[in-house]
């Protein structure tokens, strides 16, 4: 997929921009001052495949804890700043690889300049993050096109402030709670700037409610080549954010597959076996296989082999038995109760 060209921004050891893989971000949701708990959560995110972790620092006690956390981890840590310039300075001095700043909620422009100069001196990145809800002049009845224009104007103003101080190690983000608005504003940002874009749908909701709107917003942008890093915002365990991010990126070919992937036919009246139960058992059996192998489970031999043509190994069901295919060739006929064992053996051999 052709990515829209953007510059490279360095966030600690991770480079973000169109010449680099799309970086997955998440955010801790435990108290930052509970250093041990926070460290454990950061580690879980690292294990899940997160590239960059953001941590909230609302108080000075948090920035003190933040510095201790940064010291103990091997992943770029971003400080999430709202309202208080002093917190930004403390976090930068405490070792942040990036800060997330909405200049609109730092009242005094002199404070914004102070933060920029501090970030520049420490050679770190800044994400200029604006939210639709915080845009001045925006009313409930402002039409969509005008909303986009106002957000774009606000972003231009902020970017200028950074550029005027000779600072360009920036990432841009503009968020909305609306799926459509998120798509529109990010398209506009992509057309108007060549800085890397951070994608996200804000306040998306509980995991089960947020997954689909987030996949639509982010998937639509990514499929148009827009976006260089993303965070899937979910009210829940942040590890789920990383999993969903991978689920969005993988079908678009934007994430390297390092695990066994399972596809299952949608089932229909031709099913010869309980496909759903078989697929669930196979999913459990392959969950720890760290091999980029595509496995398919199909309910019949009429259409199954054709529909599984893309799979490395496929199981097509017959009556009380299954046929195993490797690279499209039938290699075995196995009794139903032996299917999983044989399949695992073939995966091992593959
Ligand atoms: S593979 Fe067979 S059982 Fe499954 S959906 Fe296709 S036709 Fe139906």
Report on this model:
With 350 residues, the protein is α/β, with parallel strands linked by helices. The protein has two domains: 9-252, Dihydropteroate synthase-like (TIM Barrel); 261-349, Sulfite Reductase Hemoprotein, domain 1, CATH 3.30.413.10. Helix content is 40%, strand content 20%. The chain has helices at 35-48, 60-72, 85-93, 109-121, 144-164, 179-192, 207-223, 238-249, 275-286, 304-307, 339-349; strands at residues 9-11, 14-16, 23-27, 52-56, 77-80, 98-101, 125-131, 170-175, 198-199, 229-231, 261-264, 294-298, 313-318, 321-326, 329-335. The strands form three sheets. It has an eight-stranded parallel beta sheet. Strands 11-12-13-14-15 form a five-stranded mixed beta sheet. A hairpin with a 2-residue loop joins strand 1 (9-11) and strand 2 (14-16). The two termini are 28 Å apart. The mean pLDDT is 92. Bound molecules: iron/sulfur cluster. Iron/sulfur cluster binds at residues 265-268, 270-271, 298-300, 302-304, 307.
């Amino acid at each position: 997929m052709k990515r829209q060209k953007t510059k490279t921004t360095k966030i600690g050891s991770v480079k973000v921009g169109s010449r680099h893989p799309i970086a997955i971000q998440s955010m801790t949701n435990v108290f930052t001052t509970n250093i041990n708990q926070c460290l454990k959560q950061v580690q879980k995110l690292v294990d899940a495949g997160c590239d960059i972790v953001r941590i909230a620092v609302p108080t000075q006690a948090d920035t003190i804890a933040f510095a201790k956390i940064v010291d103990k981890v091997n992943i770029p840590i971003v400080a999430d700043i709202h309202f208080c310039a002093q917190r930004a300075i403390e976090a930068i001095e405490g070792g942040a690889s990036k800060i997330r700043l909405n200049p609109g909620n730092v009242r005094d422009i002199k404070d914004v300049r102070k933060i920029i100069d501090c970030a520049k001196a420490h050679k770190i990145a800044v994400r200029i993050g604006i939210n639709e809800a915080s845009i001045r002049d925006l009313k409930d009845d402002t039409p969509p096109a005008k909303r986009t224009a106002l957000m774009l104007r606000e972003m231009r103003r902020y970017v200028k402030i950074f550029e005027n101080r000779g600072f360009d190690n920036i990432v841009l983000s503009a968020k909305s709670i609306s799926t459509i608005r998120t798509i529109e504003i990010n398209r506009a940002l992509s057309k108007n700037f060549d800085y890397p874009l951070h994608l996200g749908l804000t306040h998306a909701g509980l995991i089960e409610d947020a997954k689909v709107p987030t996949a639509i917003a982010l998937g639509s942008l990514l499929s148009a080549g827009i976006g260089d890093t993303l965070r899937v915002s979910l009210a829940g365990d942040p590890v789920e954010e990383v999993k969903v991010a991978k689920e969005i990126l993988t079908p678009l070919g934007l994430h390297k597959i390092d695990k066994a992937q399972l596809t299952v036919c949608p089932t229909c009246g031709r099913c010869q076996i309980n496909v759903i139960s078989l697929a669930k058992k196979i999913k459990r059996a392959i969950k720890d296989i760290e091999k980029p192998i595509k496995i398919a489970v199909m309910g019949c031999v009429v259409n199954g082999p054709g529909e599984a043509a893309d799979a490395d190994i496929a199981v097509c069901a017959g009556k009380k038995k299954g046929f195993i295919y490797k690279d499209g060739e039938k290699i075995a006929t196995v009794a139903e109760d032996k299917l999983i064992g044989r399949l695992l053996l073939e995966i091992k051999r593959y």
